[in-house]
Every structure is written in structure tokens, then in C-alpha cells.
């Protein structure tokens, strides 16, 4: 196949999304940026399929294993027989590429400098097994990763939004492009096809920078600011939501594993029509590791694993845990920007205790208080 742009294989994209894909040659490194709801994960999956048609191995990478599961599901519906693209975590790819003895640092992450030297030793050898890499939520990986990827891949395409940097080892769009090299292409994708106007407007209160995204035209109900008297009150509210919206995917995004485990026990005792699901990064396999993110019902996830996901209804039940933080801090605002923009139709920001957390004050007409 030539290096001309790949054809659009599927008609389920907006004109702007098709234009984005058509603007990406099948050679070279590229950074695609866009706000929440612009379809970056879907575009990343399409991009991986296009690159797989060149005959090279193609990997769709994410830092989060839960996002990998979502991307795997997307690829299952897109991949062309005979030219498969594979979803993988960055961690798994590094171990396959550099061996189980890939050097690491004291924090448990990889020694990117050492891996750069290893990758440089084989750079430019023309190996047909050298893969194309497509990275989703690329802002959550360090610049040093991209220096390794530049040497270890035939091409690298990164989909990212620097307003959603939640990890300590993150990158700005400029840092990603600089690490990949001067010839790196830059493409912007606009639009918000996920949130309602009300949810997107609330999210704007927490956005930390970058160009102002388009506010969706689709309207819905106002987000809810709700006080919970305790854990049982929270569980009963989630059970009620599931009963009233049996076809909804309800994401409960929590700040601690203790809260997640306690809520899961209460939900399991409630006899929901759909068995609740809990994702734990500590689980190596089984029901707390492998989730069905497409089916209706309640999914409990930690904040660190919520990136890239979306739900019909989102509940952030423990906002009081952030009460002592500076409400203007970028890290706090990014966290809420990400969590809020996971919601398609309904959003609940919950809190417990005697006083409204400072970062939830002055939300004005953006929410309904209960």
C-alpha cells in the first residue's frame, strides 16, 4: 500500500472527524489534540486500523488498562480481516519490546533513558516488524517515553488533551511534539459529541487553559450538587438511579479504594437488575480486572482509571475529600474537568460532612442543589 492517506473505512464519523483522519499521512509522527467529547479515542482506533492496512504491526497504546479494554472493544468493530490492530498498555508494550528485564526506576516506572539507548541500537535497521504506534490520552505519559517511541516505532500518532493531565509523569502537547522531532505534524479536532450543554458549561468552570472548546447545542438536565448523609444514603441514591434508568451506564468515580469497596458491598446486597462492576488496578485478572463497559448498570472506578471513559450518568460521590485543597490549584481543577466530562446525560457531584467543600462553592446556575 502507498503512503497516501488511507480511505475512511467506516461512515460513523462526523465530517470534521473524517477531515482529521484524511489529514494524517501514513508516514511520520503526528499529534492530534482535541477537547473532551471530540472523539479522540474513536479517531485513535480508526487511525490504528488505517495504519494496519500498510501491513506493519500496529498497536493502539494507553497508559490505563481500563482504557485499553475500551479501545479493544472499539477495534473489534473496526479491524479489517488480515490487517489487525491490537490494543495494549504502554507497560505491556515496553516489556514485549525490551524484555521482561526492561530497566525500571525506584518509583516502579521504566528507566526511559536506558530504554532510549536500547532503542537507538536498532534504529533504522529496516525491520518490517517495527510497529506503528497510536497513543490515546497521550498527555499522561512523560516526554521521555516519546523519545523511546520515536526510535522504536515506524511512526507515532498521539491523541491528547493537555487540559486532562492527571498523572505526575505527564506531557504538554509541545513537549510531546518536541520529543518526537521537528517534523512532527500537529492537527486539532474540535466539537463535543458527548456532553450536554449543561454538563459542558459546568466543566468550563474547572478547565485550566487551552483554547475554549465549543459548547454543545444538545441540551439536558442541570447537574446535581447533592449532600449525602452517609455511605448508605449514597448507595441508596445509586440504586435508585439504576432502577429509574435501567438502560444507562452509571459510572461512580471515587477517590479511594476504600470508598469503592464499601460502595460495592452495599450495591451487591441491593440486588440490582444488572450486577455492579468494580475495576481495581491491583487485580491481575477476573471480575475486578476485566469489565464489560458496554452493558448497562453501575461501574465503580477510581479517579485514576476514569480517563477516556464515558457513561450516561456519572456520580462523583466524595467531593469532600478535596475540601482541604486549594480550589484554584490546577491539579484539582483538571481532576474535576476530567470527571465531569465523562458524563453524557446526567451528573451528580456528591459530598458528605457539615460544610460544602470550597471548590463546589459559587457554582451558581450551573447546578441544582439537593
Automatic annotation (TrEMBL):
User: In terms of domain of life, where is this protein from?
Assistant: Bacteria
Note the InterPro entries from the entry. DNA_helicase_UvrD/REP, P-loop_NTPase
Show the PANTHER family listed in the entry: DNA HELICASE IV (PTHR11070:SF17), UVRD / RECB / PCRA DNA HELICASE FAMILY MEMBER (PTHR11070)
Record's protein name: DNA helicase
